[in-house]
Structure formats: structure tokens, C-alpha cells
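Priority: medium. Attachment 1 of 2:
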């Protein structure tokens, strides 16, 4: 049987890029398609995950995952990233007067609290003269620049110099931590200074300000990347890397719950079976329950399921009691039979 669109509804249409049907329709989940259709239907204004979740009656975290999928596949873009790429400040929804940018003062480090506030404070990049002054007065920064040029295999221009100085002076990251950050970015092929600055800002927010913390963070990131490469192939996912929110979940499953690859795959498959969609937030609930129950392998999960099934078949009341219906003791005054209760030995 073949199907076609009714003529009477063809008048009200909106554009859907051909690439969606040609390339992504077979890979994207139903939830991801629903979210994209909503965004495409309202191209005249930007959409928030909260508004979309409210309209589609979806979990906001799931909507955010769906939006990040389309960002990673270059179908959508978030305003903040787009603004940074154009080297302009992102537009603000609020109408109140924006905060005054912090004037860059060479050598003056900002306290971590200024970075971790809910509304990030804008800052101005140092000028060439300010960078030269910092290099002249700080042997540590000169050494850092030299080491980073060797690591990157090229001379660091103004953008790179401004980024490194801001990581050091504005975000308050130590020189050794900055070197470890750049070294990690090089290892995954992300050598753009905007990416390095964004990663450095994230590290500052997480208070990764020592060599030990940086080493632990890099170990976690490498573990996530290695896991994702294997997981994406096994599950047929097109994402080259996990979204930011997915990475948070993966870090929890691998580092906190100590879950194996097989356990995470099992939780993912149960999520698909129960909900019919990709939902890391739902899988997280399953894995959290298994972690609290002490399950370490799929066999533990299967064994617990069998125990629950067996318990459900037991008669209500005292599970150790049985009744011998062959031995009638007497009839009560109402004529009802009473039976001798015989406990199991």
C-alpha cells in the first residue's frame, strides 16, 4: 500500500532541508526529529530547551540532548557559539542594563568566584602592549609560551597569546594546568583557541586548579572518549563525540558508578525498550538503581529479575505457611469449613 499527502493540507507548509531526509532520517531518533521539526516550524525566533520541552511534553534534559545532536551534525547552532565565532557578544534576552566588562589588568588574577557565578562576567582581551608587559615581568608566562609553542608546533599569534594570558590571569589557572589542558586539546585534534578558551573556562568552573586535579580530569575525558568510540559503533550512533550533557552522564557511570561497557549497553537497551527513544537521563535512573543495589554485571541484573519473578509467584500472607485442604477439622456454626493450618517443616 502506498501513501501520499492529502491535497487539502498542502497549502500550509514549511521548509525542511533535504539533508534531513536524505542523511539523518535513518539515524535520528523520533524524539530528535520531533524537536527539529518544532525548531524548523518556528525559524523566526530562537528556541529554548525549556519552551520546546513544555510544548512537546518531554523531559528538558532529553530535549537538550536532542538539540545538541543537531548542533553536532551542523544542522542547528547555539547563539552563544555563533556569537563567539563572529567575535561579537551574544544577545541577551533580559532588558536590564548589562554588566560593565571587567578591564583587563596585567598580572591581576581574578578569584574563582568571579568565574563560577551564574551569570558569567564579560572581560576584555589584553592588548599587544599588555601581553608584552606580562611576558616581560613574568618568567613563568615566558616559559609557558615557549613550552606551548613547542607543543603546538607553531608560533603563537595574538589570538593564542590573548587566550593563554586570560586563562592565566582572568580564569586563574596555573601554568602547569594550562599546559596540560592544551596538551589534551592537541591529543584530540582540537587546537583552535576558542575551543581551548572554552575548555579552560569549564575547568576553572570545576576548580581544576592543580596538576593532580588536571590529571584526574584528563584521565576521565580519555576514558569517556575511548568508551564513546566503542559505544557509538555498537549502538549505531552517528555522533562523532558525546554531547556535553551525555559526557556528564558518562563520567558519572564510568567514574562514580564504576559501570562496565556491558552494563551501560544493557541500560541503554532497556531504555530503548521501555521508552522507545534515546534518553540518557532515563538510562541514568536505571544505572543509579543498579549501583545502589550493588549490581556489577548483567548476570547480577538477570539474577535479581528472576528473584523478583519468583517472589511474585508466592502466595500472599506468610510465605512459610501452607494449608492441608484434605484434613477438615470441623464446621463452624455458620456451616463454613475451617481448615487445619500446617506449617512447613
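Attachment 2 of 2:
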Amino acid at each position: 500500500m502506498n501513501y501520499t499527502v492529502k491535497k487539502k493540507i498542502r497549502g500550509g507548509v514549511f521548509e525542511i532541508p533535504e539533508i534531513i531526509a536524505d542523511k539523518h532520517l535513518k539515524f535520528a531518533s523520533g524524539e530528535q526529529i520531533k524537536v527539529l521539526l518544532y525548531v524548523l516550524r518556528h525559524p523566526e525566533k530562537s528556541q529554548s530547551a525549556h519552551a520546546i520541552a513544555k510544548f512537546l511534553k518531554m523531559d528538558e534534559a532529553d530535549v537538550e540532548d536532542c538539540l545538541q545532536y543537531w548542533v553536532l551534525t551542523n544542522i542547528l547552532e547555539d547563539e552563544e557559539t555563533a556569537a563567539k565565532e563572529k567575535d561579537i557578544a551574544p544577545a541577551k534576552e533580559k532588558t536590564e542594563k548589562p554588566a560593565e566588562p571587567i578591564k583587563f589588568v596585567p598580572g591581576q588574577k581574578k578569584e574563582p568566584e568571579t568565574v563560577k557565578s551564574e551569570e558569567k562576567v564579560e572581560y576584555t582581551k589584553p592588548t599587544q602592549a599588555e601581553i608584552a608587559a606580562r611576558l616581560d615581568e613574568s618568567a613563568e608566562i615566558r616559559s609557558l609560551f615557549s613550552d606551548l609553542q613547542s607543543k603546538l608546533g607553531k608560533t603563537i599569534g595574538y589570538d593564542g597569546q590573548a587566550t593563554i594570558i586570560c586563562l592565566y590571569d582572568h580564569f586563574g589557572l596555573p601554568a602547569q594546568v594550562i599546559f596540560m589542558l592544551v596538551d589534551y586539546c592537541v591529543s584530540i585534534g582540537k587546537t583552535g583557541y576558542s575551543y581551548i578558551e572554552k575548555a579552560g573556562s569549564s575547568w576553572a568552573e570545576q576548580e581544576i586548579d592543580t596538576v593532580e586535579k588536571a590529571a584526574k580530569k584528563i584521565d576521565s575525558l580519555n576514558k569517556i572518549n575511548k568508551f564513546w568510540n566503542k559505544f557509538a559503533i555498537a549502538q549505531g550512533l552517528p555522533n562523532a563525540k558525546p554531547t556535553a550533557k551525555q559526557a556528564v552522564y558518562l563520567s558519572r557511570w564510568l567514574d562514580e558508578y564504576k559501570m562496565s561497557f556491558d552494563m551501560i549497553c544493557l541500560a541503554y537497551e532497556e531504555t530503548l525498550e521501555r521508552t522507545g527513544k534515546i534518553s540518557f537521563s532515563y538510562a541514568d535512573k536505571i544505572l543509579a538503581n543498579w549501583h545502589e543495589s550493588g549490581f556489577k554485571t548483567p548476570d547480577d541484573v538477570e539474577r535479581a529479575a528472576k528473584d523478583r519473578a519468583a517472589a511474585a509467584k508466592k502466595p500472599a500472607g506468610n510465605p512459610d505457611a501452607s494449608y492441608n485442604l484434605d484434613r477438615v477439622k470441623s464446621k463452624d456454626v455458620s456451616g463454613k469449613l475451617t481448615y487445619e493450618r500446617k506449617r512447613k517443616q
